[in-house]
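Q: Could you write out the predicted structure for this multi-component system? I'm mainly interested in how the pieces pack against one another.
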Amino acid sequence: MLNFDQAPPRHCLLPHRWFTDASAYVLEKGALARHLPWRYAGLAGDDVDGADLVSLGGFLFRQQVPDAPPLAEWLGPFAADLLARATALDSPVAQDAAVFAANWKILVENTLDDFHGPTVHPHTIHPAVHADWRQHLSTKRAGPHSRSSWKLADATAAWWQKLVARGGLRRFADQDRYDHVFIFPDLYVASFYGTMVIVHRVVPEAVDRSRLEWRTFLPSNGLVDAKSASFRRGLVAMLSAAARQVIEEDKPLCEQVQIARAAAIGPGILGWREQRIGDVHAMLTQLLERP
Amino acid sequence: MTGWALLGQAGDLAEHGQWITGWVGTVPVVVRNFSGSLRGFRNVCSHRFALMLTEPAGRGPLRCPYHAWVYDAEGIPKTIPFNDSDFHLDDTARQALALPAVAVCLTGGLIFVNLQADADPALPAQWLTNGDGTLPDGSVIKADGTIQHRSTKARTGPC
């Protein structure tokens, strides 16, 4: 879907006021509540309820409009991705959160930006993926939802292979990849080596403030002895710190966009590896234009 | 805020590659020495709107930390990583993404900026000769010519 031989589509990004204007934030909140068919509500076991909730393997979605399409139809090809990752949801190991001084859409733009690894995460994400990541990056898009998948560096894959053996980890897929599944407007699920799953949710708190919540799942094969249990505890601490580090690297960039965006005069531009961002802006534009 | 505003000391821009930053109200600005020529721009990347230079002063390219776009003396992105594959921007398209220029005035060893690129540069000099050290933009100059307070030090205006 990314045809690097041609110029990418030139999306129109939402005007700056949707990132800085408190009244626009209220309008947007209303549009998302009134017109969005389904919205992620949490995970099975969370303190959410209602007859309008539907579970997809433990991912809970709230039906927001009476004539919503079936959930599986709304999620398109990514329903299967969520179901595969849902097998890890029985193994929560950590949760964390961070508050950003930025509009929620800036966090979403950041996570859907598939090529800031070399500049923003030069010592974390970037070296973990294959050096020829541009060749190996695979992106699937359907409506406002999308998935990008990177091949892990050989050393990273070998490292995970050892972790699976020593930690007694279960895998939902036999793959040496880092996957990122985004469900509009605020859910994204990262997974590594087909085993560790991190469920992220972007929670708007104000036009210029958002909370990013993430929960980590590390499924076990059930054959856990004392030695592997001890190993897992250390592993969880390390992986949690690494996940936090990545977020801490993203945070200043998001906040720098928030304070500068309103002063920009031009329209901005999206490249091929930012088309997922364009999809979000297109859907938001549709929702905001409805009466 | 409109009009001229004091951004800093000329000494901080003495050499090629040196830059200083500040805020004209809610607009971040940067002035950089390009081979002896002082050029000023909005300090906002044309790509995805990140604030580019975050320190008050420094030395180096006009480079966005988000995706490493680098801008030249005309404010045009001269280095765009992955342009051939991801953006396909030719010279005309790059020109269209040039950073909006701001007017720069060097007088009395001080650097002034104005968001209107064609603003009259005579005004800041008049401020220095006519005033008592308190400038119309709210900045304060000491008797020895150093800056006691500058209005552009921090972002002001609506959040």
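A: Regarding packing and overall arrangement: Strands of chain A lie at 38-43, 53-56, 59-63, 92-100, 138-142, 145-151, 177-183, 187-192, 196-206, 209-217.
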